[in-house]
Structures are given as C-alpha cells and as structure tokens.
Amino acid sequence: MDVPLxxxxxxxxxxxxxxxxxxxxxxxxxxxxxxxENIPFGVTLIRKGSEVGExxxxxxxxxxxxxxxxxxxxxxxxxxxxxxGQRFRLLKTLHQTPYIMGEVETLLSVSPDDAKALELSDTAxxxxxxxxxxxxxxxxxxxxxxxxxxxxxxLADFIGCHLEIGLWSKQRLLEELSTPRRxxxxxxxLASAVREMTPRVEEARSARxxxxxxxx
Length: 216
Fold this sequence. Notes:
By secondary structure, this protein is an alpha+beta fold. The protein has a 5-stranded mixed β-barrel with strand order 1-3-5-6-7. It is built from 5 helices and 7 strands, in the order ββαβββββαααα. A hairpin with a 5-residue loop joins strand 6 (78-95) and strand 7. Helix content is 44%, strand content 28%. The chain is globular.
C-alpha cells in the first residue's frame, strides 16, 4: 500500500487523537489529496531532520492517521483532528516531491488476547490509575474518573500514548508488536514512576498542611 507520509516530532498510537496545524504548501497539498480520495496518511517519528523545511528521514514504524475533523483557515491553512489507525512498517520511500510517499505494510499485534496479556492488563490498568492520580496530585488537581480500554491491546496503546516519557521510549513501545511484552514494558515504566512520585506527593501534601497551619 502506498501512502503519503508526515514525519513529526511525535509518536501516534492506534486509537489516539492527534491535532495538527497544516501550513506548509506541501502538506496543504497532501491533506487536500487525503480528503479528496478519503485516504489516511502515515505519521512517523522523525529519525533525522525537522518538521519544517527539507524532507525529514522517517522512522521505519509508524501509524496511519485518519482525518476526522477539518477546520479551514486563511491562506489554505487547516486545523485537523486525526485518529490513529493501524501500525505500519515503511518498506521503501517512493519519492519526496513535494511530500514523501512511502510503500508500507500494515502490522498486527501478536497475542493481544491470550491469558498472559489479560493478566498483565489488570496489573497495568491498576498501575496506570495510580500513576494518573499521583500525576494530578503533583499539580494540585483532584483525580477525575479515568476511563480506560478493556482489551489488552487497546489498553497497551492507551497507556503508551499517555505516558510522560521520551519520544524514543514511546517509539519502542509502538514498534513492539507483542501485546504481553508491550504491557510488561509499560508496567516496568509505571512501577518506577509511581515509586518516584509517591514521596514527592507526600511531601507536597505535608507542605500544604504546614502552610495552612501558618495561615491559621
């Protein structure tokens, strides 16, 4: 399958939402084509180069982006809301004028619903709930109701999207096709983050109580 490619400094996971502001002439043309032909484009993390200017070198694994909303602006600019579809592997770059076209093959997760994946998803879900609560507490916010996917594969991608980690760590999660292994990687990241954040939250709460005592 041949698709237009949009190398970005971000990692798009299946099921995730991606807002984009389109202002470069080449990407205006690309998006117009996608809209006219009702086709997705491929989002890939930039391996080398930048989002603006000369064509960047894309990573090998990316995600198809389906345009769900368009807002047209002055001078042909657009604001888009896109939703992540299937993972893909870039087999070869076809051309780079005016935007990159690539030949890709779509990728499927391995063992998404086996017994191990189901067991790991329970652990990952509980840890992410705690991670989310601690993250809000550090910014003095109340924990809100968190809705997470129930299926192991969808849950793994949801967690990967929402983890506050480096782009290349996210890319490694995207490239991991084994759902159990992806969940194991995320459990390790979450457990470490929870251990690091817990004393910080406790100290922040103690400081707030001390401040209240001073005021009274």
